[in-house]
Design goal:
This protein is an all-alpha fold and about 425 residues long. The chain contains eleven helices and two strands. The longest helix is centred in the first third of the chain and has 75 residues.
Amino acid sequence: MGRTTERRTPTRLQLWTGAVVVLAAAALTTGTLAVADTQHGVTRVGQETAPLAQSASDLYFALSDLDSQTAREILTIGNSDLDTEQGDAQATVNSRVTEIDADLRQAIGGTSDAAVQSQFQTMLDKVTLYHDLSSTALSLDQLSTTATKGHPDSVALAYYSRATDVMHFDLLPAAAQIRDSYAKQLNDSAKNENDAWSLDTILVLVTTLSLLAALVLFQVVLSRRFRRALNPFLAIATIATAVFLVAGLSMTAQQSDRIQQAVDNNMTPYLGIQHARAVSYDAVGAIVRYTVAPNFGYDHGYAADLVALNGTPGTPGLLSTGLAGTDKALSQRAQADWTSVQRDASKIKSEVDGGDVDSALTEATGIAGGQLGQDFYALDTHLGQAADKQLGSFQATMADARSGASGWAALPAVLFGAVIALTLAGVWRRLAEYR
């Protein structure tokens, strides 16, 4: 009976060793997959979908600002007192056109999707058309002998009306579609990373806990068979496996949380603030356009922008939702600025409707406190600060996630390779006793 047991012992040791090696290989595979998925998620969100969403949002903002600045330029023509404002508006228009052109050309070259390339190329053509129409309107108004302060040339206004139609019926809707599409990609990538982490966690737990159980039981088998309290090789392998389980899951969980928090708490609010800024530019542009062309229906566009920014009963507007996660004091300043801008716009509209164009022009272009130009500058400054804070926090959190996930790629192979080697070393001497 004793000899039979002795003959069976090497086979049992080999089977136990084989089981541990197989489980270690399985833990290596799931551990490597978990680390790779975490690093891919960090890269996907931080370096791919988030920058795309940011660029698309900034493109929409730049288009809205371009139209607003063009309206300012139209407003200042024929008034020598506003030469400085006209120069500033012209410089901003040129800057925005260059910026938009560069962004769209980069977007065209950054995708291999023919349909998407065609959409970007169409937008590029529309930007050129808008610029040509608005430039023609400005030139005609400057050369006109019938235009007077606050009353642009009728032909110039016709060209300008066509330009605003291109902006509001073609460019901005297309930009909004792209913005929303890339924002969805960003949220989907964060959700996919979280889903991958959940599945990876289950696989890592199953394989690594099975490996731990096998190592502990193998230790018990060896101690009973050979009457030795501890096999140091297996003990080290057990500790290493347990450390990886705790540290590895902690690392992947932390980076997954960072990604989700960065998207939910920072990038999404950033996109919301930029959207609100773009609509506020359009609102101010609409009231300026109304000043020079009150019969073109621009007041309807302004009313629509008010609803978008302020919301309706039971539905919060873009401004409050975008500022929801912003520093309370900064948010309150921006809200107060917006209240002032609305008051200024209402005053301008009343002056235009009452025929007091000179007062409306002064109100629309003034840089004193309580005038539209100054109050809108304060609003945009505070919204810009809020957006910059959110973007900075997002970038800092993603940098932490990249740092936290770096250096882990080879760790599962090294650690579980060591577990396999330690297991073989731990049982080698025992097997040698039966040769």
